[in-house]
């Protein structure tokens, strides 16, 4: 049974559930949403965490996407060999191809109610989404069993005895260390979306019970983003779930297992002059300033945080997914490949001219 209550800027869902909770982890469906219910049935999952590039498009998105995004929809589709598409292909032709092959995916069917998710799905958006649809989801568009993870939503899961099991929160989009960090949320255009400092500061204000287990979800991988990693370490999650990279397998790591602490601290050092300039000139919102102050905050040399956070970077859903299983307060996880020749297929795709990964 679900109870929903609003607290400040936080949408909080409390739920009681089984003592063994199976959480399906997946990413980069790019509109192929039927596979979510299929994998739920195969794994007997109780809920889903989706790490972005979900396929948040409606039937009008095709007219809002840039030519580059339209080309990507074609070049990353099963029908890409049937068409010669390049930078000279005009927009009208690209729209025609996308329409003919329904390359925007299935989300419109969930908007209309024709299709439904079989279990609760908690999702961040990726860097390839229609920002107009995201704004609708933040306003009044409701999809049964779909819960967006952003700065406005923070979820807590409880046992039958009302004891907090874990918290779940996240923020999607690309992470661009540029002037785009200062944009007004939700930031994006032409089918691209990125996160901004204001959102991270706002999300941090919702974080409670840091001593209890928690899961943070982003689209981008923490292994590629030292500035973002330095910010999120202050949120103190136990698991950081991400996608985006398109590796052939689920990648799992803990900084303690791959670096000495001094090496990790050196890696976290980032150029923050651009943010400092905006900060000194008073151009940041209160929330963006909070995020920047966290970035600048000195790092406690106590290595407990260093050993606590486990990163799980997911492949595209076509290549695999994972299960995070909670059993009597203990988490363990299980990566699952879609097929034995996944790596061979991955190498083949990487070698295809004009068929780069979605970045």
Automatic annotation (TrEMBL):
GO terms for molecular function: hydrolase activity. Pfam families: Metallophos. It comes from the Bacteria. InterPro entries: Calcineurin-like_PHP (IPR004843), Glutaminase_GtaA (IPR052743), Metallo-depent_PP-like (IPR029052). Residues 22-245 form the Calcineurin-like phosphoesterase domain. Coiled coil: none annotated. SUPFAM superfamilies: Metallo-dependent phosphatases. This is Metallophosphoesterase. It comes from Legionella gratiana. The lineage of its organism: Bacteria, Pseudomonadati, Pseudomonadota, Gammaproteobacteria, Legionellales.
